[in-house]
Design goal:
The structure is a homodimer. Chain A has three domains: 11-89 and 178-186, D-Maltodextrin-Binding Protein, domain 2; 93-169, Periplasmic binding protein-like II (D-Maltodextrin-Binding Protein, domain 2, 3-Layer(aba) Sandwich), CATH 3.40.190.10; 197-274, ACT domain (Alpha-Beta Plaits). The first copy, chain A, is 28% helix and 33% strand. Chain A contains nine helices and 15 strands. In chain A, strands 1, 2, 3, 4, 5 and 11 form a six-stranded mixed beta sheet that branches. The radius of gyration of chain A is 21 Å and the shape is elongated. The relative contact order of chain A is 0.17.
Chain lengths: 278, 278
């Protein structure tokens, strides 16, 4: 993580290198701001605590891989609030140094998940060996810094721009229905006027039908859920936290539902009210 | 994966090397049987399809890390049935070649998740560098095969036995509440007489309050849930499959509940009736 000075201009903390998909999401959510790359997820949240960044952009779920459990856990533990959500189409690009062509390539570096999402490409190019690397953007950085003339990388368009790489081919991913949902978060609670979605997390008392009763507080008030996710509670095996997205902002019905949920749940925390992504 | 002969004696397919935690789980669930190690999870299910193994043992959730999404997806896709469940305490052991002592160690190999679960050990031994390896049991195999005298590995007790390593220290994990839940699965549906737990997966029609209605089929019949998990549906962004465990075997109430669920859900599949783990 970068130095421990306090913020002068707006900085957005992300996990990963410059050019990561989180960087691309940050550029869409907060144009014209600078990113603060952090090696680990917990450092993204620390950057908010220590005022090294004004806000942060974190992935929370992917339509192929599922939830990002570590980020859900941190949203529950840490004192942060969701300002906006974004659904980013994950497009994988084949990137190499300028002058290098597809025919020159013998190796392609990327994160194992990205390599696995581009299997058809490697089936069509059996002369190219996929090589696992710690990070998608980092693989572009590596190819460019080492001036490799027979190797490429798979990463975001942003990574190509960031490190001066050339995109040889776009849309390498096998499944085009590949989206990642990101949250823009900050320390201070703030609700924009058009907020119409609420994310919350709660735990349940260990009684029969507890989850059904918890969901009834929304159903009985015609508040629709778009998502439910469960996460294990550390130190209490086989107990879970439930993360729920409700398609409603902060209004009378929602407040009543949350009061009602407080009667049933052991713990309730609202982690954001924000406008629904298109 | 091993050759494509058909099975003579009982073989249990597992993902990972011999000595992996799945091997330890297989030994507890099916004592005196041989394991068939498979490199990838999908190969474990293929081994059942191609009769290379009679059954398989797969992890489905961990009390610190959460669900094993890939295995939940495969349980839904593939034609298999759960026979039993097991809750295995995950104990990390420091393993080295015989004659090597703790003082000799400068490097310790293991899977990144295992290394991360033993942070206190590395804090107490700053002279030892943690080195990421593809597999816990594989790291023991590596240390033993390379006759390393200044390196150890972190893995299961089974891995030490398997490769002739010596356990230098047990219980390296920071959090003792570290359990993994495993399923014993086979192709043929079979229900043991004392089965009192049912696992199923269903999708929902995209209507308001659909999940609440789905859970009502159990709650209205006093059938208690021990677990709910959601997984993204491939090719249908922001739609989910729901995995539910019901604390009840196959009886009249359960059959009525499943019929009722069929009225509400787009898809319903029972993936097992089995006795609850202690």
């Amino acid at each position: 993580m970068a130095g421990s000075y306090t913020v002068r201009r707006v900085k957005v903390a992300i996990q990963g290198e410059r050019g990561a998909f989180s960087h691309q999401a940050a550029s869409e959510l907060m144009p014209k701001t600078d990113v603060l790359p952090c090696a680990r997820s917990v450092e993204v949240f620390d950057a908010l605590d220590y005022l090294q960044a004004n806000c942060a952009v974190i992935p929370v779920e992917n339509t192929l891989a599922g939830p990002v459990g570590e980020h859900l856990d941190l949203l529950c533990e840490k004192d942060v609030f969701i300002l906006r959500e974004l659904r980013l189409r994950i497009e994988h690009n084949l990137i190499a140094a300028p002058g290098v062509t597809l025919k020159d390539l013998r190796q392609v570096f990327s994160h194992p998940v990205a390599l696995d999402q581009c299997r058809n490409f490697f089936r069509q190019h059996i002369e190219i060996e996929p090589v696992a690397f710690y990070d998608t953007a980092g693989s572009v950085k590596h190819v460019m810094a080492s001036c490799l003339s027979d190797a490429g990388a798979i990463a975001s368009r942003q990574a190509a721009e960031e490190y001066g790489g050339k995109i040889l081919q776009s849309g390498l991913e096998d499944d085009k229905q590949n989206f990642t949902r990101f949250f823009l978060i900050q320390k201070k609670k703030k609700i924009v006027p058009n907020a119409d979605k609420t994310s919350l997390v709660f735990s349940l008392k260990n009684v029969a039908g507890a989850l059904f009763k918890a969901l009834s507080v929304f159903a009985l008030r015609d508040l629709d859920l778009s998502k439910i996710e469960s996460r294990p509670v550390r130190g209490k095996p086989w107990e879970y936290m439930f993360y729920v997205d409700v398609l409603r902002g902060e209004d009378e019905a929602m407040r009543k539902a949350l009061d009602h949920l407080g009667e049933i749940a052991g713990f309730v925390k609202v982690i954001g009210d924000y406008p629904r992504a298109k």
